[in-house]
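Annotated sample (chain length 828).
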Amino acid sequence: MRRTLLAVLLAVTAAVAAPVNGTAQPSNPDREPGNGPERNEVAAVDSAFTAQLVQAQGENRADRYQGYPRRTALRTYPENPADKTIKLNLAPYHSLAPKLNALQQKSNRISVEVVGQSGLGRDLYLVTLTAPESPLQTRLQEQFRASIEEGRKVPAGLYKAPVWINNNIHGDEWEGTDGALRVIEHLATSNDAATKNLLQRSRIYFNLTANPDGRVAGTRQNNAGFDLNRDFATSSQPENRAMREIVEKTQPLMMLDEHGYVDNTLIEPTTPPHGQNYDFDLYVKHGYANGLAMEKGVQALGHPEAAKPEIPFRDYDPGVWDGWAPIYTAQYSMYHGAISYTIEIPQQVNRQAYDTLPAAELQRRAKINTDVAESTIKTTIDYVDDHRADLISNQTEMFRRGKAGEPQREIPDGFVPGFGPEDRYRTEFPRAYVITNDRSAPAAARLVDHLVAHDVRVERAERPFTLGGKRYPAGSYVVDMHQPKRALANVMLEQGSDISAKVPVMYDISGWSHRLLWGASIDIYKNGPFHFNGKDVVAAAPTGDVDGAPGADLALTLNDAKDAGAVNDLLGRGIALRRQDDGTIVVPAAERLAAKEVADRYGVRFTTAKPGGTALQRKVIAAAVGPDELQVLRESGFDVRTISTTVLNAGFDWSRIDVLFVSSGLNYPQLNASAKAGLDEFLKRGGVVTRGATGSRFNVDAKLLQATPVAGWEDANGVVNVVNGTGPVGTGALPHSFVYSPQWFTNLGAGVTVEQRYGSTVIAAGHWRPRDNGTGGQDAAAGQAAVVSGTASTGAKVVLFGTEPMFRNHPKGLYAQVARAIFWTGTR
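Output written by the structure step:
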């Protein structure tokens, strides 16, 4: 029956055929602003964006087998004269839906689907250009796509080559959207045979604007203050989750991420280091060739401003524009089979240029940028069409190697011009990872759901099994590394590497590890016999439980942000909880039903409590923090009021505040007399938690704990080994933490407790070198106090973090440390 159906389908198809702060200059001047140590200077605020949104939703997203075209009656938005694109003579967001609606009425080659909403509720548009398909033909294309993912060959002449163009992920890098609009209109309306034939062989997907809130407001970040091009491994933002779904479902052979602005235009591939999990031989051949093709296309435009495009692989020093981290669109997309690029168009029109240059000059520059974006898109579409059979085979081979568990290939010098020893980054894939509930059931479930959402295959044991001499219970999760997207699984679960000695600088973070930083218990099975009876996971099994003895008080250990959320939920109900010296939270036996409700809601587990504890009330936090930290605190259930030097100087009511959290945007000496008096009065009764350079400076200026902060190299970052103490914050913490512009504390006064020290080997994965003068390196940090606690002479309980426990909403296993610090400092 299957052969008959396939034959019918084949027949049918054949017929249709940054500036930085003044005190610490980063080593890499090319780093984008907002992603270096200057993040300590600007505090998050509750959003001041406004949006006049029409509430009528567009039609529901199409079933993936619906066929094409997929016409959606897009909701339209009121004209917004404040849209920052208008000054540049570019397309304001409110103009997009009417244009797309009109094109859908005019052409049967264009389809528009709403694939999500931004933080402010603006629609995210996936625009597809392809020749019409019946549902039967679409089902066949999906079967081809699935076969390629399994590493099986498909008839290249029948598979529509997918290309994905992502635009405007940084809101104030606008012109990718406008270049895409030109290409979309051409493909939808041109009647020449070449265009029609191209769309018989291809599907061209456009994420028209990945960051509509930033586009309108003229900000790099989204409405929540996140750089979306740093969020793919974590997927904390709705816009990133929409992009993740696009790349998974479309499985592009090639993709572009359109950015700005680099003089002359920048076209990947990158310099070393290259991600060590890639089958890089399958990337660099076509990656470099199409890079050269895009260069020629841009030069052919004749714009002097783009006469000499820069290809980092060919033109830059190692590390300046690296391909290491899976946090960027292009680097992440490679794990889904794409030959991918970041494109940096040439003429700056944002930030200072936007505010200072005449409108006519800005529009001239924007026109050049739009031409360049359009050219790179057209060149890439043509390249894929010209090399479609080889690209399909290339992607198939990547997935085949993963499923077969084959080792990475050794790439010879000169594989492409310039390829040499400095380009070789490889890893050895283990046979499997095993995820258990040993430490934190919510963390294990979250990690499993996260892996599955990223198209990593996970199985759940239906009965006990033994692997590597260790016995695992039924319900354990196994990531069999013989799977198509093993590289994506490994980049999330492996430790990573210390690459400090391999390159002098890095563009952004160099270390991450869901295994070490997300709080789950994960074992590595390197190699050997593999016998396991499991069932594919669609979603992790529920983890909540109340296991305490009937009639007894219940205990909850703070191992995860979900535990903190459960505690804050109970406190919000007015339930009288207790906090014990080791940080355990006690729920009265009479509130067992409430405990059962939050156990089910948050997936947390209650056990029988020991006697004792101090009364615990709900904590209200005044937070001078970054946007990432603000999101974590609120996700953990805390009531947070954002503050800064400016807010305090304008007058602030401290009467309901229990804890002050300082990491960004608060400078004690810059407070006026009234603000300083109000803060000083709070410090006689409230708690304080600080993080980073701004927090350490606040501690010194406010004369809280005797602890001298020492700054490590400003660009140092990654996963670090730590040794935990037995104080209120160190107890039960993970043996790893995360740092970015790390600090440590010396000259500790009497009564100051070391909660956590850097290990004798500091970096587990990342990049941490000494400064040119020899200071600030790993050797200097080894064994030093990374987190300390104590009571100030004012009476305030204080915790100082030299680590980054909430960085970009990523190191989720560290959030419990923060919660324990808040509950301890806020409790008298």
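Annotation: The longest strand covers residues 753-767.
Annotation: Residues 1-26, 48-61 have pLDDT under 50 and may be disordered.
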